[in-house]
Amino acid sequence: MKRALFDSLQAARAAKRPVAVVTELENGQQVLLDGDTRAGDLALNETELALANKALADDRSGPLEETNLFVQVFNPPLRLIVVGAVHIAQLLVPIAALAGYEVVVVDPRQAWATDARFPEVRLLTEWPDDALRALNPDRRTAIAVLTHDPKLDDPALGVALASPAFYIGALGSKRTHAKRLARLREAGIDEPALARIHAPIGLAVGAKSPAEIAISILAQVTQELHGAPPLVKAEAHK
Amino acid sequence: MTMMHNDDVLGQAGRWRDEGRKVALATVVSTWGSSPRPVGSQLAVDETGNMVGSVSGGCIEGAVVLEAQQAMESGATKLLEFGVTDEMAWEVGLACGGTVRVFVERLD
Fold it and tell me: In angstroms, what separates the C-alpha of B92 from chain A's closest C-alpha?
């Protein structure tokens, strides 16, 4: 890879722009697609350019059919918005970061949302609906609502459900969730939207400790991200 | 999060290059059957054999590193294919039954 192309690629990634590198696999020529800007020594025809841009939009690296071209997609990191600077959130933040998520924690309760409890993560202390609206969740965003307090959870869910976020989960028992659904229905949220909420949050792995619950949440986020079928416990070896 | 991300292969490759080391990149460009790392997975190698990232579960990395070291000397790109029908791949043990194609290039 040429120095100039590599440096442009790294600059675009640092600026969190969605970009792609197309490589001709026989001769090694490459081009960087960065919005309307193209940089590099590889010339693409209209069809190839359209296919490469589609791969970028679909977030899918791969070879372009019937060509010798390979498209490498570099999208900005997936995001996880955690509402509630609670104990589980303290464990969920590092686990999600390891999995490549850019994590934001939202909690207006300043006793909870402290840098001491959440080192090295972006903390927002606005009211959850305002914070979520400003963060503008897209289809590469997951939202975990963990405050356990309807005053904070409900407004957060209201904004989350109006967004295309690929995952929305809410902490609380089945009973807590039934009450929550009743309140959200009362607030005018329709059934298809309510059905998007994963609650009780997390895959049923028998999680008990905050770390285990954090793992079950990230496992469920992963399952939704990749559209994996529901998990069935592997049969014991006989 | 300022924590260094494990998968920041290109960031590490760039740092090595900036330190004046020779660096090569290997990228999974296609897979068939079961393969441990998806298309787009990358491995960076420096001239002393330091590695970051991966292109398989570890079974073809040895062979890829050798090719990468040749690429960083010659500057020529190469398209490698590993699979169960490939003798070399069998030796390096791609026993998972898949086939992968890996593109190797020097980072100038």
Answer: 24
Query: Does residue B38 have a cis bond before it (omega within 30 degrees)?
Result: no
**Contact between A70 and B103 using a beta-carbon 8 Å cutoff:** yes
Instruction: Determine whether the interchain pair B1/A121 forms a contact, defined as Cβ–Cβ distance below 8 Å.
Output: yes
Bigger pLDDT: B84 or A131?
A131
B33 alpha carbon, distance to own chain's centre? 19
Residue of B nearest to A14 (CA): B11
Distance of CA A150 to the CA centre of its chain: 24
Strand ranges across the sheet with B23-32 = B51-53, B42-46, B23-32, B99-107, B78-82
Dig out the tokens for A106 from the structure: 């939202």
pLDDT of residue B3: 36
* Separation of alpha carbons A229 and A198, rounded Å: 15
Cβ within 8 Å of residue A222, ≥6 positions away: A99, A228
Q: Using alpha carbons only, give the angle A80, A84, A88 rounded to the nearest 5 degrees.
A: 80
Given an 8 Å threshold on Cβ–Cβ distance, is A61 in contact with B39? yes
Q: Do A70 and B6 touch (CB under 8 A)?
A: no
Question: Does the pLDDT at position B1 exceed 50?
Answer: no
Instruction: Please indicate whether, in this complex, the C-beta atoms of A6 and B108 are within 8 angstroms of each other.
Output: yes
Q: Does domain A79-225 have CATH number 3.30.2350.10?
A: no
Q: Which pLDDT band, with edges at 50, 70 and 90, does B94 fall under?
A: low
Q: How many residues does chain A have?
A: 238
Minimum distance, in Å, between the CA of residue A28 and any CA atom of chain B: 6
SS3 letters across A61-78: CEECCCCCEEEEEECCCC
Residue of chain B nearest A105, judged by CA positions: B1
Spell out, as residue ranges, where chain A has pLDDT lower than 50: 237-238
Confirm if B89 and B60 have CB atoms less than 8 A apart.
yes
B98 CA: distance to closest CA in chain A (Å): 16
- Report the pLDDT value the prediction gives residue A3, as an integer from 0 to 100: 94
By C-alpha distance, the chain A residue nearest B107 is A1
